[in-house]
Write a structure and sequence with these properties.
mainly alpha; about 260 residues
Length: about 260
């Protein structure tokens, strides 16, 4: 087997997206100031709020994905319009400050999931399949490291490996019991595991929005970078899945490792 020249370029592009600096670096570059200043301004209990809101946002996103993903027929992703929608919610958050996060984040997360799903569809995924829907949600775990991670667990394939059994078990559960059993332990564990990584990225976003005088424009900018980050993760992830459907997981993995 051998990748075509175009497929090798696609794989290299996917790797460049998945292995690039995380959200914190992107926010620091865009705002010309380190977001550590924002972390210092957060209330002491804010980590609990972020973790709780991240889990609730992903739960709402899971419900949304089960009910609505797969209903559209378009094959091209609408990246710009989803960016605009998330920017608008960010403008509201920038205007009203940190108190708006528990309301703004679930809405932004659903818009981002819609964008991730569009990207998945454009790379040949079938959104009617529960495995695809769970892979869309798994994108929220990419590009953000859990506090329990060590250096060997933070690469793209390491994260995927850590989720492979969870997704497999969740797919089997839904096939057996239906997606309505949202409180099932395996789905709760899946959401909690994604949330542990998503919450790290959300904390970075919240810290950026905590910087004084950020305002509506700054909030929109932060959210635009936020969704752009996950659109990049989604594009890289679903390019690789497209290649894996054709060549197999092991072959694509080896080709990924060989790229400089």
């Amino acid at each position: 087997m051998k990748l075509s020249s175009e497929e090798r370029q696609d794989l290299a592009y996917a790797k460049s997206l998945l292995e690039n600096p995380g959200l914190a670096a992107k926010l620091t570059n865009a705002m010309a100031k380190p977001i550590e200043k924002g972390f210092n301004m957060l209330p002491k209990n804010w980590a609990k709020v972020v973790n709780f809101t991240s889990r609730k946002s992903l739960q709402k996103a899971l419900e949304f994905s089960v009910l609505t993903l797969g209903k559209k027929e378009e094959t091209r992703s609408s990246d710009f319009w989803h960016k605009a929608a998330v920017a608008a919610t960010g403008a509201t958050g920038g205007l009203f400050g940190l108190v708006s996060i528990p309301i703004e984040l679930p809405v932004s997360t659903i818009f981002m999931l819609r964008s991730i799903a569009d990207i998945a569809r454009s790379e040949g995924e079938n959104l009617d399949e529960i495995e695809t829907k769970l892979n869309c949600l798994q994108v929220f775990a990419l590009g953000g490291n859990s506090k329990n991670d060590d250096a060997a667990e933070t690469g793209y394939y390491a994260v995927r490996l850590s989720f492979s059994k969870l997704i497999s078990d969740a797919v089997k559960h839904v096939a057996r019991s239906g997606a309505s059993t949202r409180g099932a332990p395996i789905l709760v564990k899946f959401i909690s595991t994604v949330a542990s990584r998503f919450g790290v990225v959300v904390s970075e976003k919240v810290a950026a929005m905590a910087i004084p005088a950020i305002g509506a424009f700054g909030g929109a900018m932060v959210n635009t970078i936020f969704i752009d980050h996950f659109q990049d993760m989604a594009r890289g992830h679903f390019i690789i899945r497209r290649l894996e459907r054709k060549y197999g997981i092991e072959f694509v993995y080896q080709q990924y490792l060989e790229l400089s």
